[in-house]
């Protein structure tokens, strides 16, 4: 579980300053100098296109990213992006479901759709020799939806199945609960459909959502391992379902507490305050603070106590197995900062109090210079390692283009990290940690304190 929060937090902190040095053993390999070779342009229809060519792999990846995630759902549309995600392989206006599957199978391509709270990402992995067919399948699946009633009815069984799987995963449920109590709507919308919406999604509802939100200024196509002229040529006939503009409702942090008792031997809890949006000038300093507090073990199978303040604090409070890590989740206009913990049910109270005391100590006593320097190296190392994964590179390029219209290099990000001072870290700690708290807890909560008993 720690890897989930750690990866996302540093990835999001890096979203504005991403390196395009993608280099996976399975696929992409790009220029080690960072964004050298990245080309960006706009199609006549207004969609942004970016490409970073690579000649070292026979496989290319093209991703269409639409800024249409769950945060844009209205109260009568809850889970509609979950339905959109699972319907990616259905018939569209130019291809039947059979035809789409046959084309992809014949060229050995993979087409998938993933979601974050802000974006839907339609991804194609394909041999370079077959990109013309592959991109055609990608574009038709992402922008030419037909939503035939009988196919929508069929996909709702998969929606119910995925939601049932999540119900059996306390870690995933904790994340959903935490966002819900922190934001209520917008960023509090779940990645998964609620049970009361099963079987209620219709072709008209889906088409209305697509026409309203899939607009040119909220879409970008990014390619790795494909030339810019080639990519734009494949996209020249691409149409955009929606028209006009639809301004996103600003995320409003609320705070509060939510608990769900499910029994068992363990308890899961997370406590956060409102963090910073990706465009906030203090976002990099907050990432450094996260590493100062501790992002879980850095050595496999170790307990991480040597490199984590909060693990050290929790370890002194209990002799039972536990796990804890700092959370720093960043979105375009808000974020969450705090920690999560997993412990034996009887020990959760001691663990939470110990970790909270460590956070409070930072705001009162500050941090040591050596801790800040070490944390800065950890931020840069994690960002560099994550930039070796093509999926991360594409996601970050897309998020930057959609939110800011530009892409910054890894070198620029490193300079920003190096410029963070000890006082910057202390200031951002006081600004964020002293904010209004939110708490989510699930598991055996018989001895887990309530929020008002902790703060």
Q: In percent terms, what proportion of residues is strand?
A: 15-25%
Identify the strand order in the major beta sheet.
1-2-6-3-5-4
Sketch the major β-sheet. 6 strands, mixed
Number of helices: 16
Q: What is the number of E strands?
A: 11
Question: Uncertain spans, ≥5 residues at pLDDT below 50?
Answer: 1-33
What gross morphology would you assign?
Answer: globular
Q: Separation of termini?
A: 25 Å
Indicate the percent of residues in helices: 40-55%
Element-level helix/strand string:
HEEEHHEEHHHHEHEEHHEEHHHHHEH
Structural class: alpha+beta
What is the averaged pLDDT score? 89
Rg on CA atoms, Å: 22 Å
Say what oligomer this is.
single chain
Summarize the structure.
This protein is of the alpha+beta class and 455 residues long. The chain contains 16 helices and eleven strands.
Which tags fit this structure?
alpha+beta; 16 helices; 455 residues
Task: Describe the 3D structure.
The chain starts with a helix and ends with a helix. With about 450 residues, the protein is an alpha+beta fold. The radius of gyration is 22 Å and the shape is globular. The strands form 2 sheets. It has a 6-stranded mixed sheet, sandwiched between helices. A 5-stranded mixed sheet has the order 7-11-8-10-9, with helices on both faces. The N terminus is likely disordered. It is built from 16 helices and 11 strands. Helix 9 packs across helix 12, helix 11 packs across helix 15 and helix 12 packs antiparallel against helix 14.
């Amino acid at each position: 579980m720690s890897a989930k929060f750690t990866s996302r937090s540093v990835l999001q902190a890096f979203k504005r300053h991403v390196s395009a040095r993608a280099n996976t053993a399975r696929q992409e390999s790009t220029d080690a100098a960072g964004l050298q070779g990245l080309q960006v342009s706009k199609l006549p229809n207004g969609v942004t296109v970016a490409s970073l060519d690579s000649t070292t792999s026979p496989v290319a990846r093209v991703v269409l990213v639409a800024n249409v995630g769950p945060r844009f759902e209205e109260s009568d549309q809850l889970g509609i992006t979950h339905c959109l995600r699972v319907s990616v392989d259905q018939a569209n206006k130019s291809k039947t479901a059979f035809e789409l599957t046959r084309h992809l199978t014949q060229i050995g391509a993979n087409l998938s759709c993933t979601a974050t709270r802000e974006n839907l990402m339609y991804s194609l992995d394909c041999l370079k020799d077959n990109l013309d067919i592959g991109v055609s399948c990608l574009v038709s699946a992402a922008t030419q939806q037909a939503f035939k009633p009988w196919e929508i009815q069929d996909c709702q069984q998969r929606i119910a199945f995925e939601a049932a799987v999540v119900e059996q995963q306390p870690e995933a449920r904790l994340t959903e609960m935490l966002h819900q109590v922190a934001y209520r709507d917008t960023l509090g919308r779940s990645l998964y459909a609620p049970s009361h919406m099963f079987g209620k999604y219709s072709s008209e509802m889906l088409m209305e959502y697509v026409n309203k939100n899939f607009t040119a200024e909220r879409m970008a196509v990014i390619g790795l391992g494909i030339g810019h002229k080639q990519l734009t040529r494949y996209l020249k006939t691409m149409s955009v379902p929606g028209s006009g503009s639809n301004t996103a409702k600003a995320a409003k942090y609320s705070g509060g507490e939510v608990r769900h008792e499910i029994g068992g031997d363990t308890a899961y809890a997370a406590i956060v305050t409102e963090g910073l949006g990706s465009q906030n000038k203090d976002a990099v300093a907050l990432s450094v603070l996260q590493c100062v507090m501790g992002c879980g073990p850095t050595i496999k199978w170790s307990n991480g106590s040597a490199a984590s303040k909060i693990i050290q604090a929790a370890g002194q409070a209990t002799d039972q197995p536990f796990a804890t890590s700092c959370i720093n989740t960043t979105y375009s206009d808000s974020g969450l900062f705090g920690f999560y913990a997993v412990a034996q049910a009887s020990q959760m109270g001691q663990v939470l109090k110990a970790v909270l005391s460590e956070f409070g100590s930072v705001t009162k006593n500050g941090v040591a210079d050596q801790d800040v320097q070490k944390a800065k190296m950890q931020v840069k190392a994690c960002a560099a390692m994550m930039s070796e994964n093509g999926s991360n590179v594409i996601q970050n390029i897309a998020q930057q283009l959609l939110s800011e219209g530009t892409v910054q290099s890894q070198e620029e990000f490193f300079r920003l990290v190096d410029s963070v001072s000890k006082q910057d870290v202390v200031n951002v700690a006081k600004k964020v940690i002293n904010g209004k708290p939110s708490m989510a807890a699930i598991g055996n909560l018989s001895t887990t304190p309530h929020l008002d008993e902790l703060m």
